[in-house]
Structure formats: structure tokens, C-alpha cells
């Protein structure tokens, strides 16, 4: 295996909770569509897939059967690292939010490290009670938390849970910039967030919408890992919808190569993030 310091983990987030077919006909919604899309992204070189599912109406959902089917279809076809959301919908019980990773044992799951006024319309609730329970349950299941950070206070929350033993080092952060209610997608904000995390932590970042490319380039320049996909951004260029998530993967591969770096394979991502490869046991 070659030098890992030059490897960039590329996560694809194909679906997310919000975009609808009416926003872009190219967004994968059903388990079959999501699995096909993830497979194409894996073929194009993606290291990790961050998965949300939708209900039969296409709305955000934590429906266990949909996760089960999606995960099965992906695992049958490729060895991409799986990262399941724990926040695919608002106002759900702790158990519903945790069941997919508890039962399906992806190697990673999201850990949204604080609450936020989401899109100025609702509360994205991640209470202290839930975050303690979630951190300990992830340790029990050997699932690595991807600590999603929407503003700087969430980094301080993570450091608190690290001290308390709810999170174990080395931490892995995902800075989400440009969400309405969170920090804006600027270079200054990303540099500041990176300055707050422990030395041994790994991190990635993404910009939502038009912040996508500026944050992608900044993240690469700062030595971070990257995320692309229609969860964050449906446009390949101004007024031009991406026709597939693989288009984003292909473009990022070219940018990364021009910077003299390489995209990490799934197994290289497992080493960089110290993941337990549950796929091997299945
Ligand atoms: Zn997500």
C-alpha cells in the first residue's frame, strides 16, 4: 500500500434528506436507485458513501427496511465504506435514529454534535441526552462517529464528549458549511474550524450549494478529506444540473490529481480512519 499521507478520502452523499425529483430528476431516491448510483460512484473511485433513505413519497425517512435494502444492495456489489445517517428526519425517537447502524453495522454513522435552527423553519434537535446515548452506542457497535459540525460550538461539544469518554480518539470531523442556520461557506470559517480540532483528529468539509467548489478547493489545500453529492449540491455548474453523482466524483478525481494527490481506496480510507471492517464479517 502506498503512502497514506497523500490520500484524500472522497465521500459521496448521493441523496440527503431534502432534494426532490422535482428539484432534479437525477437524484436517487429508492433503494435500487441509491445502490446503482453508489456503485457507479465506487467505480469512479469514491471511498465512502453517506446514505440517507426516503419513504415511498420521496420524503426524508429513517425507515429501517429502506436502509436494510439499500445497504444489502450496495454490499452485494462493492466494498465502499458505508456511513449511515442518524438524522434523516426531524422529531424522531432516539431508537429510530440509531436502529440502522445498530442493526446493519456500517463502519461509520453521522454524529451531529449539537442542535440548530434548521432552515429557519424547524429545530434540528440533538440533545445532550441523545448525544451521550449515541456516542456510547456507537462505541458498543464499533461504528465510527463522523462528527458533523455546522458551527463552532459543535466542535466544543465534541471536545467535551471526548473528555467525558462518550467519544474516543482519534476523532473524525465533517465540517458542513453553508446550511441555513449554520456557519457560512467561507474560507475563513473553514480555517477557523480546523484550528479548533485536536492534532490527532482527521477531518473533511463540504460547502452546500454554490459554496461547494470553493470549500472543496480550500479543503484540499488544507489537507482535509472531501465530500460531494446531491445531498449538498445538485448543480454541476451554474444553471446546469449534475446528471449523476458520479459526475462529481469524476471531477473531484481530476482536481485531486492536478494537486498531486490521489483518492483513497475504500481500504485506504479504512486505515486512515481506523475503521473496523464489518463487511469482512458479513
Ligand atoms: Zn447526511
Q: What does it look like?
A:
- With 282 residues, the protein is of the alpha/beta class.
- The protein has a single domain (7-273), classed as Aldolase class I (TIM Barrel, Alpha-Beta Barrel), CATH 3.20.20.
- Helices cover 38% and strands 20% of the residues.
- It has nine helices and 16 strands.
- The protein has helices at 31-44, 64-77, 94-104, 128-141, 152-164, 187-196, 212-221, 245-258, 266-272; strands spanning 7-8, 10-12, 48-51, 53-54, 60-61, 81-84, 108-112, 116-118, 122-124, 144-149, 172-177, 202-207, 225-228, 235-237, 240-241, 262-263.
- The strands form five sheets. The chain has an eight-stranded parallel beta barrel, surrounded by seven helices.
- Helix 1 (31-44) runs parallel beside helix 8 and helix 3 (94-104) runs parallel beside helix 4.
- The two termini are 24 Å apart.
- The site of zinc ion (ZN) has 7 residues, from loops.
Provide key terms for this protein.
single chain; 282 residues; alpha/beta; TIM Barrel; 8-stranded parallel barrel; 16 strands; 20% strand
Report, as a whole number of angstroms, the end-to-end distance. 24 Å
Q: Residue share in helices?
A: 25-40%
- CATH class reads Alpha Beta
Q: How many DSSP helices?
A: 9
Question: How many separate domains make up the residues?
Answer: 1
State the shape.
globular
CATH topology, anyone?
TIM Barrel
Give me the count of strands.
Answer: 16
Low-confidence stretches: none
Question: Would you identify the CATH H-level superfamily?
Answer: Aldolase class I
Main sheet overview? 8 strands, parallel, barrel
Structural class from helices and strands?
alpha/beta
